Every structure is written in C-alpha cells, then in structure tokens.
Automatic annotation (TrEMBL):
It comes from Methylophilus rhizosphaerae. InterPro entries: Alginate_export_dom, Porin_dom_sf. Pfam families: Alginate_exp. Residues 1-24 form the signal peptide. Residues 108-277 form the Alginate export domain. This is Alginate export. The keyword Signal applies. Keywords: Signal.
Length: 427
C-alpha cells in the first residue's frame, strides 16, 4: 500500500538511477511564469446531449437535454512544474426528466438520468517532473487505468468522477510504467462527495508493441462506498493480473486477446463476507480498421451473500450501456458478449450484444433462475474535425428470469430502452 510517507524512499531510488545514467534528461522548460502560461494549452469542451429513456415500471419517459461545459488551462512546464485548472458546469436545458424531489417523499414517475446540475472545480493539480522519467501529480485529478474496469472517470456521464490525492508515475524501466497513488476524497458522477482512503499500486510491461501485462493492487479503506452491497463495511482490496492487447499476424490482420484474474477480499475491517473473484477472457480478430471479438467477464459471488464490486470504476461500458447493474447482484454476474466495430474514414461504428446471468442460482417466485437478461448496444459517431464529433447511441435491455426471493415487483430489473444524441466540441 502506498502512502505519502513513502515518497522519500521513491525519490532516493530514482535519484540513484539518474546518477547512474539510467534516466534521461528533463524536457525543455518555459523561461518565465508568463511564458509557462501563454505556452500552455486549453483543456476545455462543450458536450450537448439529448437522452431518452423508456423504462417499463415508470409512467413517463425521460427526455433530458443537458449541457456539459468544461473550461480549463494547462500551463507549460516551468522549473519542472506545471499547473492544470478546470471548471465544470452541468446545466439542465429542460426539466422533463429530473425529479427535483429526488424521490424523497414520493416515487419518481420519471426514469433516472443521473446528470445533476453542478458547478464545481473539475480538476486542479500540480505536476512535477524534476525527477527524470517520473511525474508527481498532486491535487484533484481524473484517473483512468487499463480499460477503467477498476479505476476510471465515468466519462460517459456529464459529470466526471474525480479523485483528490497524489499520483506518482515512473517510466525508468524499458517498456514499463510503475504507478503509485493515494487519494483521500472522491467526487462521484452524481456530484456527491465522499471521504475515502484509496491506494493504488499498478505495474505495466509492454511485452509486444501492442500488448501488455499488468499487475495491480487496489486498496479501499472505506466502509461506505455508496453501493448497496448488503454488507455494513465495504472496505476491500483487489489483487490482480491482466494480459491484454493485439498480436499482428501480417500488416492487415491481428489477433486480439484479453486474460485477467483478480481476487477481492476484506481489508481494514471490511466484512468477512467480502471474498470473491473476478475473471475475464476474450479473443478476437482484427482486419485493417475492422474488428470482432467474443468475451466472458465473471464477477463472482460468495455463496449469494456478496459479489465482486468495482466502486471506483467507469461502470458504463460494462454489462451493457443501459447501466442496469452498477452494483453487482449478490448472486454475481456472468457477462458473455460479442463486440463488433470499425473506423471508416470519419465514421466510428460500434455494436455489442450481452447475455447476462448469475454466477450462482437465485430464487424466483416460481423456482430458481440464473438469467438476468440480455442487451443490445449500438453506436455511430462521425468525426467532423479533430475537435468536433457527433454521436448516436442506443441501448435496449430485456429481462429474462425474474430476480427476487418472493416479490418480482420489488426486485426485478425493468425492461429499458435508452438512446442518446451527443455533440462534442473540444478546444
């Protein structure tokens, strides 16, 4: 587990490598504070979105028009130091989807579109690169690791997930990256702030030009992660290993592969019921700009009492885009899915089909079951310029077996159809 007090040890190690000539020299610096500012770059964007939700158990459909505004600037380096500052505003352009009562006094008649209005600091951090091949980042920041299954920024939602803390990244070893992080506050995509005690140890080595192996440890000393997992203390640790990437067959064809395994256990007083495994295996084939692959992802169950959770993840791409399983059911999750996509000129095409089932059988009003449902996801984007993109997306979830011990109405997953139209401009 990484703590801020470990930095002097890390600095001493890197300084020794530098003295031995292992590390390269620092990059060119701005000559003044003014130059650092004017030679910097914008980290700004507008994202206008229409989201439609038709949910089986809601009387009304949601028709949400929202606008995300990010305004920010990243300075050039001066004395090996740069600063990034970014503000965020999420505005509702209509009110035909948002229950201002938040369901406190009555059930909402509208499906949830979890994009609350906020104005806040989205990112504010200092980067220090005075130790060669190393970057130290302190402050509020976005973190994306691997495929964001364990740590991500929930980039799809209008409000990002951001972390307050310290990240140290080092590239001293050839074809490798070592990352340590410690974070003490978290703003979720719902706009809710949480105190946390979250540590990351992450090592990645590129064994082929397009493939890498990653070993990781995530340590969450946080009793309340905001997930309804059925245990009083959600503190846990994840230790895992991941192989992922592409192997070129010839200039046109390539094999795609993913193999990953992780174990989640109790940590720092977490519930003894926290004991579950995660696995993913996938194989695919790419031809020029086209690809197709088949994957299976399993979030295991501990005898139906607890299932593998990823509370710091970008959850939207997993188990389908309809976001029906942001918390893994206690019976676990087996997601078998097929993905097909391509980039043709300025067009970006992506489609997925998911079959979702339990890791262990669950009880239904008429017996036992294992199928949660299935989902079809479609996306079509057009990149007008490097800065401007338009995208259409569609997700349809349909339930199979009814999940629940006695009452289907209170525990089942409703059928849902969602669609999005998004315009993104970055500057």
């Amino acid at each position: 587990m990484f703590r801020a007090r470990h930095l002097p040890v890390l600095y001493s190690l890197l300084a020794s490598l530098h003295a031995c000539g292992v590390l390269a020299a620092a990059p060119v610096q701005a000559q003044s504070v003014y130059d650092a500012i004017v030679q910097g770059k914008s980290v700004s964007q507008f994202r206008l979105r229409y989201e439609y939700v038709d949910q089986e158990n809601k009387a009304d459909d949601a028709n949400a028009f929202t606008l995300q505004t990010l305004l920010g600037w990243q300075t050039a380096s001066y004395f090996d130091t740069s600063i990034t500052a970014q503000l965020i505003n999420i505005s509702h352009l209509n009110q035909d989807f948002y229950d201002n009562n938040l369901g406190k006094n009555h059930p909402s008649q509208l499906p949830t579109v979890p994009d609350p209005e906020i104005t806040d600091i989205n990112q504010l951090y200092i980067d220090y690169a005075g130790i060669p091949k190393t970057n130290v980042r302190l402050g509020r920041q976005i973190i994306r690791l691997d495929n964001t299954r364990f740590v991500g920024d929930i980039v799809f939602r209008q409000s990002s997930q951001v972390f307050d803390g310290l990240t140290v990244t080092n590239h001293a070893l050839s074809n490798s990256e070592i990352l340590f992080g410690h974070y003490e506050h978290l703003r979720q995509s719902t706009g809710k702030y949480r105190n946390t005690n979250f540590d990351i140890a992450h090592f990645s080595y590129k064994y082929l030009p397009k493939a890498s192996v990653t070993a990781y440890g995530y340590f969450i000393d946080q009793a309340d992660t905001g997930q309804n997992t059925g245990v009083a203390d959600n503190a846990h640790k994840d230790i895992g290993l991941r192989f992922d990437g592409a192997i070129d067959i010839n200039p046109d064809w390539r094999w795609l592969h993913t193999v990953e395994y992780a174990r989640q256990t109790a940590y720092q007083g977490g519930s003894r019921e926290i004991d579950a495994s995660y696995s993913k295996i996938g194989l695919g084939l790419g031809y020029q700009q086209w690809f197709a692959r088949v994957d299976q992802e399993v979030l295991g169950s501990h005898d139906g009492l607890y299932a593998f959770q990823t509370p710091m993840a970008t959850l939207h791409p997993f188990q389908g885009w309809a976001d029906m399983f942001s918390v893994t059911p206690r019976q676990g999750m087996v997601d078998r899915f097929v993905t097909f996509g391509s980039t043709v000129d300025q067009w970006i095409i992506l489609s997925e089909w998911h079959h979702l089932s339990a890791d262990t059988h669950f009880q239904t009003p008429t017996g036992t079951g294992e199928d949660y449902g299935h989902e079809l996801d479609l996306s079509l984007a057009y990149q007008f310029t490097p800065q401007f993109q338009a995208k259409l997306e569609y997700a349809q979830f349909r339930e199979d077996d009814i999940l629940g011990a006695t009452s289907a109405a209170s525990t089942r997953k409703p059928d849902v159809t969602k669609s999005w139209v998004t315009l993104l401009y970055q500057f």
